[in-house]
Design brief:
The complex is a heterodimer of chains A (372) and B (123).
Chain A (H helix, E strand, L loop, with lengths): L14 H6 L3 E5 L2 E6 L3 H10 L2 E4 L4 E6 L3 H8 L12 E7 L5 E11 L2 E6 L4 H11 L7 E4 L5 E6 L3 H6 L14 E6 L2 E6 L8 E6 L4 H12 L5 E2 L2 H10 L34 H10 L3 E8 L10 E4 L2 E11 L6 E8 L8 E6 L2 E8 L10
Helix pairs in contact in A: 2-7
Chain B lengths: L6 E2 L4 E6 L2 E6 L1 H7 L2 E5 L6 E2 L4 E7 L3 E5 L4 E6 L1 H5 L3 H4 L7 E5 L11 H7 L2
Antiparallel strand pairs in B: 1-2, 2-3, 3-9, 4-6, 5-8, 6-7, 8-9
The chains are: A alpha+beta (372), B alpha+beta (123).
Chain lengths: 372, 123
Amino acid sequence: MSTSAPGTLKKTPLNARHRSLGAKMVEFGGWNMPVEYTGIADEHMAVRTRAGLFDVSHMGQIEIAGRDALKAVQHITSNDAGKLAIGQIQYSALTTPQGTFVDDVLTYKMSDEHFMLVVNASNIIKDFNWIAAHVGEAGDAVAVNTSSRYALIALQGPAARDVLQSLTGAKLDDVKYYWFTTGEVASVMCTISRTGYTGEDGFEVFVAPGSAERVWDAILQAGKAAGVIPAGLGARDTLRLEAAMRLYGNDMDETTTVVEADLGWIVGWKKAEFLGSDVLQKQKAEGAPRKLVGFEMVDRAIARHGYDVYMDGAKTGIVTSGTQTPFLKKAIGMAYLPSDRSAPGTEFDVVIRGRRVKARVVPLPFYKRKKV
Amino acid sequence: MYPSDLKYTKDHEWVRIDGTQAHVGITDYAQKALGDVVYLELPEIGRTFNKGDVFGTIESVKAVSELYCPVSGEVVEVNAKLAEKPETVNADPHGSWMIVMKATNPAEAHDLLDAGAYTELTK
């Protein structure tokens, strides 16, 4: 385990809380973050069966505003933001002209002339520089990095709705999946977003940094009876992998296209051009050379990020994410395979410490919650 | 906290020497650092190792870690039951032996840390 000197790392407004809760702290994307409190498996199970509370304040916010804000968002992201109503959110990609990922983002439509992109912590500066360089190409719009204005607290799990509802006057049942509203949580004005990175129902609450501790404490207190516990980045990673949600830097980056990452559903195929649209249209029509798939281990072993994939004795791909998951209790992962050999049921070898171990392609996601 | 009948390595294995028999496992400190243990890869019976050699691998949800031989010798027993229920390592690290070695030179254990010195090391 590598650890940097804590003094050089950025801290979220909840850093002291994590320490007093006994979290194991690690460096993540330049931030000092909690990786686990009571244990990854314990926290993972809490989110699947009750709810977990995450500090994701390291995530960035970049806001785009101006008369041509929609045109700008349409130009720099792959999904069709023209379909968004005010108060609605979509998953999207910030693309290069090659159709690859600068980042994956959530696009919030705040008003007709104002959008907010929620971006990955390690990419905030890169994304902002990229957006600032391209935002003007579509007309009259500016980008502002507002990351330091928000703490972000995620409450995830089947109990999330009831627990959060007990603290807010906002009618949460009116906030559908991938919509947001504004309202007070524990008497603090927040933006409440029905989104998350766990595969469960849940909310992400944007709050001013100075009020983050108040909201965090109130949710933990209100959730005590329902068994809500704090959860760290370790459980966040195993939860998102079970739900087959991609992790930037692992499952895709500036060398992989949106089509290769099998995220064609976040491309607005009918909208006018965006950066990389020609490449993606071509890959959609003619096929991409490789594809991101889900797999389960057939032999007893755990495949992890960066392990080589072999088929018929030749290296044909790479594992992008992999772990033993606490809920499904299986060794699962995602990998890039040649597109013509990526169908469910296809078997391949993963090289684990010099040994070839068998794995099998399975449909994604690994885990899907039951809709109530 | 650390049993006085065990000896400890700086790599966080423990060994219990009984004549030429050496039971080997990992310490409470190690299991805490790893977190939830989910996989254990142990050697075959009959393999011989020198002190300091890698004899196996332990994986938690988030990390992969190698296991080092505290003494030289031949593997005479492997704890297959533990490999089936690797989470036992978290619950009872000092009771969870992984392999038994026939030590070629049990005196090698004299160089290892006793419970007091190991407690100091992990403070």
